[in-house]
Amino acid sequence: MAGLASRCFRHAPWVIALWLLALAGLVLAAQHAGAAYRDTVALPAADSTRAAELLPKGDIERVVVTAPGTIDAARDRIEPLLRDLSDLDRVVQVVSPYGAPELVSADRRTAVILVSFDAPADRLGPELARELIETVRTDDLTVGVSGQLAAMTVGAPNLGNAGIGLLAAAIVLLITFGSLTCVVLPVVTAAVSVGSALAVVVLLSHVLTVPKISTEIAALLGLGVGVDYALFVLTRYRQGLREGLPPRAALERAADTSGRSVVFAGVTVCVSLAGMFTVGMAFLDGIAITSAVSVGLTMLAALTLLPALLRLTGMRKLPRHSAPGRGWAGLARSVTRRPAPYAIAAVLVIAVLAAPAPALGLRLGMPGAGHDPPGSPTKVADELLAEGFGPGANGQLVLVAERPDPVAAEALREIVATRADVSPGPVLTVTPRTGPDDPATAELVGWLREVAGPGWHVGGAVAVQTDFSAAVTSRLPLFLAAVVAISVLLLALVFRSVLIPLTAAVMNLLTAGATIGVVVAVFGGPIEPYLPVFLFAGLFGLSMDYEVFLISRIQEEWRRTGHTRTAIVDGLVSTGRTITAAALIMALVFAAFAFVDSRVVREAGVGLTVAVLLDAVVIRCLLVPAVMVRLGAANWWPSRRREHPVAPIPDARDKAGWIH
Q1: How far are the Cα atoms of 126, 185, 193, 259, 641 from residue 14, in angstroms, in the given order?
Q2: Where does the protein end up (predicted)?
């Protein structure tokens, strides 16, 4: 690490030029290629997949129209729309609501136009989807579109809020470290690396199954860890300057210490994200790969671009208040002298935050179009359908048989009609009496499969979402075990300890429970099935930043003194301010994403905000020191070094002056 940082420091102009050229080249390539996101979920063994195979292959979109009066009075405006839809490329049929009573609401104010295409939505492409939406735009009518093709036009959330998060992070950096250089360098490093990562995500969408949400998740993770990684290296560099080292020597030591921690933390985040591969779905694999790319580039930037920027900025002296204050020494001494009350208080906080998950119930499912951004065609269609045809109109199911039998179909229709509205025919269209997000609708899917029996299959968007949730839920135990095992092994390799990685795993599980509890309390249900997977993988990876940064300093002091309690105080005082500042910065970036117009991004933003603050403040600064004090020398087993019988705790006045 020291050699790499030293070379980047010496050849600063070339390193900066290479990063800027890479950023410009990737952005231009991404703009030229365009995005090819795919939100389709492949479930080969699912019942809904078999139903889709038995239905016509072409995509069917529902154009929902409402008029100020009735659709009869608006016929002169609706019929031109019918002709325009018929002229669209790859349209094979347009079914007019005039002459089809089932496509008109009871009050005759809302009508549905069925538009059939000659191929599935994922083969039609986003360009045709945008053309469809442009065709239905009119000032005279309120029009929405429901279907897989229309869903492609629900744009990616506006990432402008990320700039607000970075601005807030810059203010925290300025207040905490009192240096404009400490503000600019981490922000610039994160911005360049994440900009490059987002361009790579666009390019990867052409060769992998990359869902649209990957862009936001990659930006969210990359900006959060990017500022942190740069800050860890910069903090250690400043400590070297404080001790009188020349800039290059200070940087080399920072690379050998904090730089190695950054590499370990970044690799751990990537490995934890790779745990999503155990679920076995290309949809989640795309999120894992793109997120790992973002984290990997931010890690590389902290080790190469940051040293080059340090050379150009000429940062050789420190602001007046750069030394740590006395508050951390006082807290550290208090926690190590009375560990039990602090441990109990920390566990109570976690329990209160985690309580909503079991109390309210963690219900997994894909939220319907009602959660799409306001004014989007899909949300407008959802509102119009619910108002004109009932809450279940946008969650229709289909019952299709392997071998159509009109008599059996009619008998099944009579049974299903007791719980839902059913249209006659060889393929039964079932309209639930509850909304797509209602648990009763998901229960209806299971009931239909029971009463229909073998030879019949249940399809439709709600059925696909139900099967997706079931598939993810069934694989969660394997995923959790894989991520926990990987984290424990990596920490065991770094610290040569058994209890430290085991206690870290338990504490991460506690944080994960509290995080999910807050998300359930704030958003209710359903929660996207892949969100707990992403939050758990991200949390386990991100928590390693603070774990390694804190424990490595504690272990360093323990090896020097042989006193666990003294080492805990030394480690907490020397890292406490950096850990909490880094956590606050990351939380501010994550919190900015909690206000975008995408529900799942808001959930991820809130979840990760809670996770990093809880992990840094409650877990690392309170619970970890308290537990380590109780474990004593057992923390370092199987190390053969003996614990010294006396563990003096330095006075806060002494510690504030000389700690490094």
Answers
A1: 40, 17, 16, 21, 47
A2: Cell membrane
- Looking at CATH, the fold of the domain delimited by 1-34+158-322 is given as Multidrug efflux transporter AcrB transmembrane fold (1.20.1640)
DSSP states of 500-533: HHHHHHHHHHHHHHHHHHHHHHHH-SPBPTHHHH
Residue 134, φ and ψ in degrees, nearest 5: -65, -35
Quick one: tokens of 263? 């590499």
CATH H-level, domain 324-367+475-660: superfamily: Multidrug efflux transporter AcrB transmembrane domain (1.20.1640.10)
Q: What is the dihedral of CA 348, 354, 360, 363, to 10 degrees?
A: -170
> For the residues 465-491, what does the mean pLDDT come to?
85
Burial label, 634 (beta-carbon count in 10 A; 0-12, 13-18, 19+): middle
Looking at the DSSP bridge assignments, the partners of residue 337 are none
Question: Number of helices and strands (H, E) in the chain?
Answer: 26, 8
Which band of pLDDT confidence, cut at 50, 70 and 90, is reported for residue 641?
A: low
Q: Which one-letter amino acid corresponds to residue 506?
A: V
Please tell me whether residue 477 adopts helix, strand or coil conformation. helix
For the whole model, what pTM was predicted? Answer: 0.78
Would you say 516 and 576 are in contact if contact means Cβ atoms under 8 Å apart?
no
To the nearest whole percent, how much of the chain has pLDDT over 70? Answer: 92
Of 358 and 13, the structure prediction assigns the larger pLDDT to: 13
> What gap in Å lies between CA 651 and CA 526, rounded to an integer?
52
The pair phi, psi for residue 106, each rounded to 5°, is -60, -35
Domain ranges of the chain: 1-34+158-322, 324-367+475-660
Helix (H, G, I), strand (E, B) or coil at 120: coil
According to the model, what pLDDT value does residue 326 have? 65
Report yes or no: 462 and 441 within 8 Å, Cβ to Cβ. yes
CA 62 to chain centre: 31
Go through 109-140 and write b for each residue having 16 or more CB atoms within 10 A of its CB, e for each that does not: bbbbbbbebeeebeebebebbeebbebbeeee
Beta strands in 129-185 (DSSP E): 142-146
* Secondary structure element (H or E) that encloses residue 476, with its range: helix 461-495
Q: How far apart are CA 155 and CA 133, in angstroms?
A: 12
Q: What mean pLDDT do residues 243-256 have?
A: 82
Identify the pLDDT of residue 161.
61
CB 285 within 8 A of CB 276: yes
pLDDT of residue 653: 39
pLDDT for res 290: 92
Q: Could you tell me if 176 and 327 are in contact, meaning their C-beta atoms sit under 8 angstroms apart?
A: no
pLDDT band at 419 (very low <50, low <70, confident <90, very high): very high
| CB neighbour list of residue 333: distance below 8 Å, 6 or more residues apart | 569, 649, 652
For all residues of the chain together, what is the average pLDDT? Answer: 83
Q: Which residues pair with 117 in a beta bridge?
A: 91
Nearest to 234 by CA among 244, 247, 224: 247
